[in-house]
Amino acid sequence: METMNGKVAMVTGAAAGIGLACAEGFAKAGATVILVDINEPKEQAEKLNSEGYKAVSYRCDVSDTQAVKTMIDWIVTTYGRLDAAHNNAGIQTPQRPMAEITDEEFDRTVAVDLKGVWNCMRYEILQMLKQGGGAIVNTSSQGGVTGFPGQAAYIACKHAVIGLTRTAAIDYAAKGIRINAICPGVIRTPMAEELMRRNPDLEKELVRDIPAGRLGKPEEIANAVLWLCSEQASFVDGHALLVDGAFSIH
To answer: Is 79 part of the annotated catalytic residue set?
Structure first.
């Protein structure tokens, strides 16, 4: 279904995993999609173009405020507008108790996982105000509504992303800008696959706590993000959508 036909969409953290699946979803739904990552995803964009879709890659460190402003300016100069944005770029801290996380690790996690979302939202919103509306989805996590041992900095940021999403949604709801968050559970991404290769028992341990009895697929997150950005979700605003196989209510 070409629910995004003629639209311009941007996805950060688009080199692999959830971000790449969402970029592919936007492209297949008819959008021109800008794939953004700190490691420019040229091959991923070229693959989409070779399949007949409209895609371009862009390198950006979302923790760099000026770099984000320059990126949004470039998108608008090149394509004239920005209809949908998925602020997905993020990192995780090493897993250990809170008091053992270093200042540097905390600051870097906040810079990417929270300030990166803040930076992107700021300039996306300014553009969407000029053009009369748009849709933004921020990636939080099932950890944005729960706790998780050894990930204090990451979990704090994911909680904060939901608070930022909800407040911004209130600020701009009357201006035609819808802002929601997606909260993925454990998803079978390349990073998860590598962890499971190193620890053969890990998948069994993870699945044990998921009522659905399996890990999620990146495409399942992409489907939810595309719905939140589409006219089918026109009255959904300020929502943190859990896509986690019922983990969070188990």
So the answer is: no
